[in-house]
Design goal:
Number of strands: 4
Order of helices and strands: HHEEEEH
Mean pLDDT: 81
Number of helices: 3
Strand content: 15-25%
Distance between the termini: 37 Å
Strand order of the largest sheet: 1-4
């Protein structure tokens, strides 16, 4: 990893730790939402946290889009396993 990559990694890592709502909000932009969330992290009932409060996600639509358009937009891949 070159110096520029190391600096970028440290910057991204630092944001994931110090500003998780901003970090995960940016990451979630790459997912297809039926309804976008109202708040990335609802911590009003600590220690019970609610991520992407108010959002509605259709994983079938997201996975189908990734599968049908693998060379399209730069979307992060989402994998799900059922048990």
């Amino acid at each position: 990893m070159n110096m520029a990559d190391q600096l970028k990694f440290k910057e991204v890592y630092s944001q994931s730790i110090n500003q998780p709502d901003i970090f995960w909000g940016k990451a979630a932009e790459d997912v297809i939402w039926n309804k976008k969330w109202d708040k990335v992290l609802d911590d009003s009932k600590k220690p019970f946290y609610h991520w992407f409060a108010g959002g509605e996600l259709n994983t079938v639509t997201t996975l189908s889009t990734i599968r049908l358009n693998p060379g399209g937009e730069n979307r992060r891949q989402l994998f799900m396993t059922a048990r």
